[in-house]
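Chapter summary example.
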Amino acid sequence: MTDQNPQNYPPAPQQGYPQQPAYAPYPAQPAGTNVLAIISLIGAFVFPLAGVICGHIALSQIKRTGENGRGLAIAGLIIGYVYIAFVVLFVIIAIIAGVIAASSGSSYSY
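The structure predicted for these 110 residues follows.
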C-alpha cells in the first residue's frame, strides 16, 4: 500500500475544465403565520382565557417550527392578561362595594 500524499499536502488542482458550481437548492418556502397566534389575538377580545392559552401554545410552536406570528401571539397574551386583570379587579371592587353597602344600611325600626 503506497501513500500518495505522505506530507498531508492539499490535493493538487484538477486539470481540464473549470469546476461548475453546484445547482442551488430550491428556495425555502416562506413560513406561514401560526394559526393559534391569530386565534390568540382574536380570542383575547372575546374570551381572554382562551387567548392566553392559545398565545402560550402558539409561542412554543413558533419557537419549534420557525413560523411567523410571534407578535400576534404576544399581543394576544398581553391583551388577554390585561383583560383578565381588569375583570378580577372589577369583581374585587364589586364585592368590597357590596360589603360596604350591606354594613352601612340603616337599622330603623317602624
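To summarize the output: The chain has a mean pLDDT of 85.
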